[in-house]
Amino acid sequence: MTLEQLHTLFLKHPTVCTDTRKITKGCIFFALKGPKFNGNTFADEAIKNGAEYVVIDEEKYKKSDKHLLFSDVLETLQKLSTFHRNHSSAKVISLTGSNGKTTTKELINVVLSKKYRTIATQGNLNNHIGVPLTLLSIKPDTEIAIVEMGANHQREIAFLSSIAQPDFGYITNFGKAHLEGFGGVEGVIKGKSELYDYLILNNKYVFLNADDSIQKRKLELYTKKIGFSIEDHQYYIIKFLGANPFVIIEFENEKVETQLIGKYNFSNCCAAILMGKYFNVSIEDIKNAIESYRPQNNRSQIIDKKDLRIILDAYNANPSSMKVALENFEIVDAPKKYLFLGDMFELGKDAEKEHQAIVDYIKELGFTDVYLIGENFSKTQTLFKKFNSFEDLKKNINTTSLDRGNVLIKGSRGMALERILEFL
């Protein structure tokens, strides 16, 4: 069977599944392999559960015409998604960056969906499987597809760009994320900039934060760029009015009061505003979209519990995002402030240095009620309270000592610090 023939079947059965526990009637099941499983062994189960076809790559599992044999299931999924992307007339916007990708993607989506039929990456399905699944969710009437791309090593963004083939691209920022895989900060910049490399090579449009010195330098000689700035009138002007705790913005004499905390969300909003302007969404619709957006899934969520206002930012953490979260929390008005910070992962040889730097910064900012959780934070030199694990925290903390005030909870996904809500 050819890729084109598979795509014809997909158009008749436009739902893809990679997990037999989530089979929907009439879908196409792709029998992916992992370190501890072989999807081919679930092919018959998928058919029994309602899948119309299964894509396999081992001949011994081919039992009927519903079993479609290809040389490599993952490669077939990726190639099919690119074929489908090119079959569609939808414009594709890809974005990557160290911090803020998912929030920015959601903001872009709420703005552009005011005028266009859009699809966007679900959750953070932004890897070599998630990007193809997003592209395959493009419908016949989709006008714009917003595709988030994540990476933790070199050449990954280049590969995802070759799959998504974006018409437009945006990089949120370059920070200290996945240092172990990228090989340091310069490696992060090089790896994330692979999106720029693709766009420039293919003469596509780039959206940029013109106040980010790295972005500005990288795109200095490139002409197909659309940028925002707080003061450089070569670009679209968007003003930052404050964040105590919610970000307030002004553009074209319109004041926008968001439900996003922290100055670090200013540029995320700006990217969505800029794209709304470029795609001719009305000022009123852009304002309404930004103001109505509420973060979810442990990303800068505001939760009020008794006398505590909790900022739950426990989806992920790295030295860059941790620092800006602390800076924002420091300026927030509150009778008392409490920090619950969990380990930052994937820092490799820099882990000890970066955790100590955060602890030193906490002291510099003047915080006193600090709870550090995880093996890396436990190794730091500090008088702050330290706990080897979440279980250790839960067993030893006296939550009755937390009076009226604000709480910041932040850590890497593997720490799952949202569990702290159970006993606050």
TrEMBL record:
Pathway recorded for this protein: Cell wall biogenesis; peptidoglycan biosynthesis
Origin superkingdom: Bacteria
Main localization, broad class: cytoplasm
GO biological process terms on file: cell division; cell wall organization; peptidoglycan biosynthetic process; regulation of cell shape
Gene Ontology CC terms: cytoplasm
Domain Mur ligase central: 96-275
Residues that coordinate or bind ATP: G97, S98, N99, G100, K101, T102, T103
Mur ligase C-terminal domain segment(s): 299-398
Compartment(s) where it occurs, according to its Swiss-Prot or TrEMBL record: Cytoplasm
Reaction catalyzed: D-alanyl-D-alanine + UDP-N-acetyl-alpha-D-muramoyl-L-alanyl-gamma-D-glutamyl-meso-2,6-diaminopimelate + ATP = UDP-N-acetyl-alpha-D-muramoyl-L-alanyl-gamma-D-glutamyl-meso-2,6-diaminopimeloyl-D-alanyl-D-alanine + ADP + phosphate + H(+)
Family: Belongs to the MurCDEF family. MurF subfamily.
Cited NCBIfam families: murF
Function: Involved in cell wall formation. Catalyzes the final step in the synthesis of UDP-N-acetylmuramoyl-pentapeptide, the precursor of murein.
Protein name: UDP-N-acetylmuramoyl-tripeptide--D-alanyl-D-alanine ligase
Organism: Flagellimonas maritima
